[in-house]
What does this fold into?
Amino acid sequence: MAIGVADLRVGTARAGCRMLSLLLGRRPVPLRAMLALRRLGGRRDALLPAWASETMALGPAGLDFLGKCLRRSAPSTVLEFGSGDSTIQMARVLADVRGDEDVHVLSVEQDAGFADGCRARLAAAGLNAVVAHCELVNQPTPDGETLSYDLDEEFMTTLLPAGGPDMLVIDGPSGDRRVRYPVLPLVQPYLAGETPFLLHDGLRDYELGVAALWRRLPGVSVEGVHVLDEGFVAGTAKPPGSN
Ligand SMILES: C[S@@+](CC[C@H](N)C(=O)[O-])C[C@H]1O[C@@H](n2cnc3c(N)ncnc32)[C@H](O)[C@@H]1O
It folds into this structure.
């Protein structure tokens, strides 16, 4: 079978990603390099593994990565967007790392039925986490409105402890290309200080586009993308007005 120029471009871009990731070890590949490789790849979702379209949940490598991140940083409160396997994994790891039965994972979920299912899975596994259903409403982005979580003050202050979250894991909502953009600016006012975030699906065009917009937000720093599973964009966010 003949290999076309388009396939060569995709193959080269993916190989470039993997090579940079290997060279950098535990550090993420800088966003500028990822965006350049994305342009080289040419076609839609050129950097995303082919299997990614078949699953909504984090894959085994993603769950393992998340578990290792949590074991290193041992956050007290992870605020997650998009419930599922990741919620179970984080609740399990933090129960082990912190050695208590406190709630360390707060998960925001767009689908009421899915939230019920996740609560049942947590209970069956003897794990503690809060799964809070949150409707989607129109929210602003730099290029028009998009449906995203209705993270109003009442919802956020009811959900969060006084000290705010000390880690953000964003794997929702699911929807159009800008659906996850509003999450970070809406959460920033509830942060107590510089807070690390991970945005899953970081090898997908939508999330690379969101990361490129987030890095222009005051108080947000986008470090790069961890090239494993479907990718994790890594960065930090501060509350508005902090230096
Ligand atoms: C990317 S998924 C979140 C996956 C989650 N973090 C996990 O690791 O399983 C984003 C949203 O898609 C919805 N969702 C998750 N799994 C689904 C499935 N199998 N079919 C349809 N929707 C799903 C849920 O509303 C979820 O919040």
Observations:
- The pocket of S-adenosylmethionine is lined by residues 56-58, 82-86, 109-111, 114, 171-172, 174 (CB under 6 Å).
- The radius of gyration is 18 Å.
